[in-house]
Amino acid sequence: MNYDGLLDPSRPIEPAAFESVVAQLSSPNAHNVVAAQEALSKFKSHPESFFKCDALILGCTSQHARFLAVQLMEEGITKRWNTLNESQQASLRTFLMNLVVSTCRGGWDAMRSQKVVLTKIDTALIAIAKREWPHRWPTFVRDVCTSASGVDDPMVENCVRLLTLLGEDIFEFGDKGMTSRAAARKKVALQDDFQMIYSVLVAVLTQSKDTQLTNAALQCFTKYVPWMPFENVFDSQFLDFLSLFCINLEILRYDSLRCLTEIAALSILSGPPGDSQKQLMVKSFRNAAQAIMNALPHGHSALSARMRQAAELDPDGADVICLYLTTFLKRYLRQIIHDDVLLKGVHEMLVGLTSVVDRKEMFKSCVEYWWWLGETLLRGFERGGLVSTGTDTSTLNSTIHASTTSSTSGFGLGEQPPVARQLQQKLNSILTDVRFVLIKNMARPEEVIIVEEEGEIRRETMKDVENLQLYQLMREALIFFTHLDPSNTQLIMTTLMAKQLDRSEWSWGNCSTLCWAVGSISGSMNSEHEKDLFVAIMSDLLKLCKEMIGKENRAVIASNIMYVVGQYPRFLRNHKSFLRTVSRKLFEFMRELFQGVQDMAVDTFLKLTKTCPEVFLDAGQEPKRFVWFIIQDAWPNMTGLLGPAHIELLHSAMGHIIHAGSQIENYPTTCGELGATSEATQILMSLLLNSTSLFKSAVEMAAVNFDGLISNVDLLRSLLHILRNFSNTASTCGPIFIHQMQVMFDELQSFYAAFSRTISSAVAAHGPAVLSGQANVRLMRLIKKEILRVIELFTEHTLQDSFVAQECMPKVFDIVLTDYVNSHPLAREAGTLALVTACVNRLKNLLSGDCAAILNHTFTPTVLLIVENTTDFPEHRVNLFRLLHALNEHCFDAFLAYISTHEDIVDSILWAIKHTERNVMSTGLELLLSLLVKVVGSEVGESFYKAYMHRILTEVLVSALDTLHTAGFQTQCSILQHLFQVSGSVPIDMPAVGRASVSEFFRQSLSEIPTLVPDQIVAFVDRCYVLSDSSLSFRQHVADFLIEVQIWGGEQENAMLREEEQRQREEVIPGLSRVGMEKLSVSSSTSVE
C-alpha cells in the first residue's frame, strides 16, 4: 500500500490520515509495516513537516499517533531551533505549555493514562529549555515550579517529572548533549532557582499521601543531590524524613535508599561543617542499616546468610541495598570504625550479597568495594582507592620493595597506618570470609580455554569480555587481601585443595575457580610463601591427575595445572628442576586429544619460554642442557599428535630460548663475526634441521619436476608448513636467524619468482577466478605470502644491515616489486608492502635514493586496487599507508621531493583519514601529522601550506564531524592545533595560510551547518588561535564545538586519567602488573634452587 499521498507536507494533512499510517506500524502484514515506515520517514525528512506537528498533536486521538507527532516536533526543536524567528519560538513554547496544562486538567487518572505522551511533551519542553534557559527564558524553572497550586493538583506530578528531566539532562547527560560551558552556565543558573525546586519536592515528601507521587519526588531528588546546596542536603529534617521512609514505609524504602546513596556519594566538607555532615550521615545510615537488618528473613542466625537469602528473594532490592552500603562505606567507613556492631553488621551483609554470584552487576559492585577496602587497609585511608597525582610513586615503590622479608606479605609495604591496622583487626574474620568468597567464585582468566557449558566440558569458542574484566577486578582485590594476610590466603587455598583431593567437594567448577585464584595472586607473596603454596597446589593437582578417571575430569585438571604453571615464572626460575618436571607434563598433555588440552599445552609452553627462556638452557643434574633434551629426545613425542598450527607455535616458543642463548653469548653485530659455531646457532640449526631438509628436497624436486610439485596439493601444503616453521622461528629468535637465512635466501627468491610466473599464467589462461577457485593456486599464493613474511620478520630483527642492503634489497626490487607491478591486481600480495616497509625501517635514509623507485612500484598499483571503496583489501590499505609513513620518517627529503610532483600522495593520505577501519584511519592521521610537522622546516614549507592548508582543514573537520571517526579524535585535534599554530605564526594576510584567510575559510565552510550561526563560528575560530598552545584546552574546545553542532558526544573525558591512576597503582602494589611480575622474576633469576 502506498501512503505517500496521505502524508504530503506541501498541503494540509488530515490527522485521521496520519493516524491511519501510524496504525499500520502494528499491522500483521509486513508489507504494510514497511510501507508505513517509509512514508513516515519521508514525511519526517521534509522541511515543512515540522510545521504540521501542532495540528497533528491536537487533532489525533490515538496515543501512538500523538506520541510520534510530539517526537517529530522534539527532533525539529533539537535540530532547527536556531533557524526559527523569535515569534515562532515563542508560539511553540506557549503551545507546549498549554498542551501540558490541558492534559493535566482532567484529573489524576486522566493525566496518568496519558503519561507516555505527556512525558514526550515534557521532553520537547526540556529541548527548548536547553537552548533558551537561562538567558532567553530566565523564568523557566519558576514557571515549572509555580505551575501547580499544591500537592493535590495533578500538575504537581508533571512539575516533578519536568524537574527530573531537567536534572537528567544537565547533570547526568549534560556532557554528551551540551558543551562544558553551556552545562556550567545552567548549573550556575540553577543555584539561584534551586530553593523553589527544593520547596516543591519537600512539600510533596511531607504533605502528599500519594505514594506514586512521593516516589517520583524521591527519584527527582536523586538527580539534584550532587548539586544541591549543602545546607539543604545535610538538613536533619530532610535526612530524618528519608530515614523514616526506610523504616516505616516498605514501598518507599528503595527510592529513599537511592536518594541516600546519592547523598552518601557527596564529598565531605572540611572543618565544623564537615563534622556536622559526618554526624548526620552516620545517624541516617544507622537508621537505614537497622531497617534493612530488621527486614531480613530470620531463617539463619548469621547475618551474612540472612542477607544472602533476602537477596535471592528480592534481587532488585538487594541491588539498591548493595549500592547504598558500598557508597556510604567508601565515604564514611572511618566514622563508624568504633561502632563494632554496626561496622561488622554491614560488612557481614556485604559478604552475604557477594555470595549471590548470579546477580552479576551486584556481585561486581561488591567486589569493587572489597577492592577499595583491600587497598585502603593496605595503604591507609589517605592513599586507599586512589594514588594522588602529587604522590611520589618512586619513593613509595622503593619503600615497598625494601626489606623483602620483613612484612607479613614479604614485600615490606612499610608500616601499616594505625587506623587501617585497627580496622583490619576488627574485620579479621570478615576478611577471611571475603577471601573465601573471592577464591570460591574467581572468574575465568583469558588463558583458560576449556570451559564448562551446559554440564559438559568444551573448548571455548568466543571470548567473554565482561568475564575478563571481572577477572581482572577480582584478581586485584585478592592480591590486596593476600598482602594483608598471605598465611590466611594460603590456608584457605590449601584447605579447599585438600577437599578436592579427598573428593568431599570435588567438582569441575570448584577445582577450576580455586586454581584460577591460585594463579591470580602470583607475585603477591614472598618467595617462601609462594614456594609453599605452589608446591602444595601443584603436588595435589598432579595427584588428582593420576587418580581421576574420565577424559573430562582429566581435561579440567590438565587445564588447571597448565594455567597455574604459567602464572609462576619467578618460582620456576628459582626451581629449575620443577620447571623441567612441569615441562615434561606439558609434553604429555600435547598428546592428549581432548578438545582444547593441546591448545593450552602449547600456549603454556610458549608462555614459559617467554618468561623463563634461560632456564631451558640450564643442564641442572642432567648430562645436557634441557633445550637439547627437547630438540633431540622429546620433539618427536611432543609433536607426534599435534597439528601443523601447534608445531608452528612450538617453533615460536623455541625461538625465545634461542634468542636468550644468543644474548648470553653476546651475539656479534658485524657481518665479519657471525658466530656460526656458537651453541645458540647450533640449537637454531638443529631445531630447523628437519624443516631445512624438507625445504631442500622441495627445491630439488622443483628443479627436476616443477609441474609435479605445483600439481601436488599435499606437497604444496607441506612446503607451506615448512615456511611457517621458518617464519615463526624468525619472529622470536632475533638476529641469529641470519644463519638460517644465509642457507635458504636464494631458494626463497627462486620459489617466489617461479610461483609468481605460474600464478600469472593461470590467471591469463583461466581468468582471476582461478585465484580462489583452484586449491593449488590458493596454496601457491599462501606460499608466496609466507616467503614474504619470513624475509620481513628477518629484516625487522636482524642487526646485519649490510646483508639486507646487499643481498635482500636488489632481489626485492628485481623479483618482489616487479611481480607486484606486473601481477593481476587481485594477485598482488599485501605482504610486499609490509616487506618493503620493514626494509625502509631497517635501512632508513640509506634507501633515500630508492624512494622514488619504491613508490613507483607500489603506490599506483595499490591505489588502483583499493580506490573503489574504503573496505576491500584492508591489508593492502594499512600496509600502503605504513609504507608512506616509514618513507616520511626515514627518507623525508626524497619523499617530499616525490610528493611535489605527485599530488595524489597527499590526496591518498587525506583519503586514509576518512576510513572507518581503525588501523587505516589512525595510520593516515599519524602520517598526516608527521608530514605537517616535518614540512614546516623544509624549503618548500610555505608553498606546501599555501597549496594544501584549506584542503587539509576541510578533510580533518569532515572526519571529526563524523561519529564513525571519534576514535581518531585526539590526533585530529593535534592536526588542527598544529595548523592553527602555523597560521598564527605567519603574517595575518598571507594567502591561504594567514589568519584572515583561515578565518574566512571557516566562516564560509561552517555556515553550511544549519545549527551554527556566524557568531558561533567566529568565536570558535578565535578561541582555536588562543588555545593552540595548550593541547588539553584545545581538545576540550573542539569537543565543545562538536557538541554545539549536535554531531558528537564527550564520552572520552576521563579515559587518560584512569589509565594514569592504574599505572601509578601498579608501580606501588607488587603483583598487580604482569609486566612488573616479569621484571620481578627477571630480578630474581640469579637465585638458584
Automatic annotation (TrEMBL):
The keyword Protein transport applies. It comes from Bodo saltans (Flagellated protozoan). GO terms for cellular component: cytoplasm; nucleus. PANTHER family: EXPORTIN 1/5 (PTHR11223), EXPORTIN-1 (PTHR11223:SF2). It holds the Pfam family CRM1_repeat_3. Belongs to the exportin family. One of its GO terms (biological process) is mRNA transport. GO terms for molecular function: nuclear export signal receptor activity; small GTPase binding. Residues 36-102 form the Importin N-terminal domain. It is found in: Nucleus. Its main location: nucleus. This is Exportin-1. Keywords: mRNA transport, Nucleus, Protein transport, Transport. InterPro entries: ARM-like, ARM-type_fold, Exp1_repeat_2, Exportin-1/Importin-b-like, Importin-beta_N, XPO1/5, XPO1_C_dom, XPO1_repeat_3. SUPFAM superfamilies: ARM repeat.
